[in-house]
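in:
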């Protein structure tokens, strides 16, 4: 059971949150386990069996959240601040400043709850209306109750106030833009420096198909011989003695079979040996040089784990976007929680509106815990490709598994194809 407790002096917010929960329910989120009640203090509480979040907003009080060791975190939402951006870094880390005026643009600014990194969203000043603030706060509270991370709550809440109260927005034009460089706030991601000089080759959505992720060149060769056309070599140990030989051989095999072989992480070796593509995680972006990858004509795939990361990396226009992890997975330690099918479908609807080359809709790869038992449900979310790891490598009959996945991925094509029977 999750509880949302609203202070008595702002009890009118309850009705707005109820409307937000109704919209979330229509998207398929489970809201029946969310209970609304009255907070015993001036602090809004969002609590479940694991933790309690306390928050207040200057929409109804000037007091800070009540100090309690029971809180996993607490936030102060400042809607009416005239703070200069250059002074933000001197503010308390739990204060979130909303719609700070920056001329033609406004900024939502906060510190990441775990590492203290400054983050910001930029959006048009024309979209800021004080009358929308209760709705904005209600969406943040609702999304926290639905277990979205703070950065996604802020990103999605800002988009939600741009549409009618009965609508869950999936339109890219209505979302804010994550800031990747602002000297006043100390935001400077290395990969964003040359973003306007970077261009990665586009991919045909249908070219990705089934996308096995394997840890050896032996598996690369075996799967290429079984007809797979898109693969990723992911070797976790950078000290592996034959690392470069494995990468070089995988790239050569890709060319021999006219296949799309992506190298995970080791971008310098990928450039050196002329790889078709490179896949990077969010944590790998800072250590990479996207300008060099772009200049080499290498296709780039990037991992994302939510709305904020998705909207941040589309600014460098990758060749494809990986969405995950969809289900619990044991193949690697994950910094995020499983996304699930509802969020996957919503991400896909948003991505379908994002410019991609001369068209719209970036190719997507769903990854994380996908097997034959859940593949059809994932595929029906509209993604371009299914990434699989153990479903193939742990099978005694990889060819049969590959054919079973092919049958699943052909089913949506049959649904989407118009009937020619008269």
């Amino acid at each position: 059971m999750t509880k949302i407790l609203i202070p008595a002096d702002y009890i009118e917010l309850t009705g707005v949150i109820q409307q937000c929960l109704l919209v979330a329910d229509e998207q398929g989120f489970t809201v029946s386990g969310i209970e609304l009640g009255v907070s015993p203090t001036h602090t809004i509480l969002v609590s479940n069996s694991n933790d309690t979040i306390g928050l207040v907003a200057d929409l109804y009080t000037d007091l800070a959240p009540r100090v309690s060791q029971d809180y996993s975190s607490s936030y102060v939402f400042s809607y009416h601040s005239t703070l200069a951006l250059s002074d933000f870094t001197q503010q308390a880390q739990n204060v979130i400043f909303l719609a700070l005026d920056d001329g033609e643009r406004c900024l939502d600014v906060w510190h990441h709850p775990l590492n203290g990194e400054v983050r910001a969203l930029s959006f048009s000043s024309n979209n800021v209306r004080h009358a929308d603030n209760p709705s904005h706060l209600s969406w943040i509270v609702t999304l926290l109750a639905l277990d979205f991370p703070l950065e996604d709550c802020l990103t999605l809440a800002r988009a939600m106030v741009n549409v009618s109260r009965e609508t869950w927005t999936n339109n890219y034009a209505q979302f804010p833009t994550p800031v990747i460089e602002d000297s006043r706030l100390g935001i400077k991601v290395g990969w964003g420096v040359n973003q306007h000089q970077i261009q990665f080759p586009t991919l045909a959505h249908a070219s990705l198909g089934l996308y096995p992720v394997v840890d050896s060149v032996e598996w690369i060769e075996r799967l290429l011989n079984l007809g797979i056309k898109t693969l990723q070599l992911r070797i976790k140990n950078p000290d592996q003695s034959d690392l470069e030989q494995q990468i070089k051989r995988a790239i050569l095999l890709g060319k021999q079979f006219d296949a799309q072989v992506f190298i995970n992480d080791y971008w310098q070796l990928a450039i050196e040996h002329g790889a078709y593509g490179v896949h990077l995680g969010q944590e790998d972006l800072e250590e990479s040089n996207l300008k060099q990858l772009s200049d080499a004509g290498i296709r780039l795939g990037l991992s994302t784990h939510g709305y904020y990361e998705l909207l941040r990396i589309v600014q460098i226009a990758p060749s494809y976007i990986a969405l995950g992890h969809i289900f619990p997975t044991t193949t690697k330690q994950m910094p995020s929680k499983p996304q699930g099918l509802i969020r996957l479908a919503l991400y896909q609807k948003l991505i379908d509106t994002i410019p991609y080359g001369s068209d719209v809709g970036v190719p997507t790869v769903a990854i994380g815990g996908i097997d034959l038992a859940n593949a059809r449900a994932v595929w029906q979310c509209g993604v371009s490709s299914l990434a699989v790891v153990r479903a193939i490598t742990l099978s005694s009959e990889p060819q049969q598994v590959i054919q079973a996945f092919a049958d699943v991925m052909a089913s949506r094509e049959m649904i989407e194809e118009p009937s020619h029977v008269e």
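note: The chain has twelve helices and 21 strands.
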